[in-house]
């Protein structure tokens, strides 16, 4: 991809990379595109940096001020640019990623709900349960049993 980007463009490399991705087996109602690729159809390196940091640090709490410092912009400017480039807020982006990580851990691990909540950045399992029920209309036990 690096060579394609160097010889052609970032847009061309991005398009080819998306075509080459092999997705895991999906259920009929699952999204066509990975949540990790959604909202990344832009070419703003600072926003990509923030998105990468959030993906790698879902278990950590971070403020807008902290994220803005990572890419050397003001907090208000970061908020504005992020929404303009991705179409959603930083909080909405983080929530989408946390939901996906929780679903994956529930279906593919034997971790207890309390540990999964911690790995997804929540202090209690109740916070995760509320999130999943609100966004997926499902409790963790229903998601865990989905593959059974």
Automatic annotation (TrEMBL):
SUPFAM superfamilies: Homeodomain-like. Residues 48-146 form the HTH araC/xylS-type domain. InterPro entries: Homeodomain-like_sf (IPR009057), HTH_AraC (IPR018060). Keywords: DNA-binding, Transcription, Transcription regulation. The keyword Heme does not apply. It comes from the Bacteria. This is Helix-turn-helix domain-containing protein. The lineage of its organism: Bacteria, Pseudomonadati, Bacteroidota, Flavobacteriia, Flavobacteriales.
């Amino acid at each position: 991809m690096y060579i394609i980007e160097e010889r052609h463009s970032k847009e061309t490399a991005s398009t080819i990379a998306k075509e080459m991705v092999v997705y895991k087996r999906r259920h009929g109602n699952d999204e066509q595109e990975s949540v990790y690729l959604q909202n990344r159809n832009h070419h703003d390196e600072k926003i990509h940096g923030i998105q990468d940091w959030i993906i790698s640090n879902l278990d950590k709490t971070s403020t807008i001020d902290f994220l803005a410092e990572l890419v050397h912009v003001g907090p208000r400017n970061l908020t504005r640019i992020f929404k303009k480039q991705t179409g959603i807020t930083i909080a909405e982006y983080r929530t989408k990623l946390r939901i996906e990580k929780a679903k994956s851990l529930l279906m593919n691990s034997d971790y207890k709900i309390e540990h999964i909540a911690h790995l997804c950045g929540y202090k209690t399992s109740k916070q995760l349960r509320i999130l999943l029920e609100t966004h997926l209309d499902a409790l963790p036990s229903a998601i865990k049993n989905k593959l059974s």
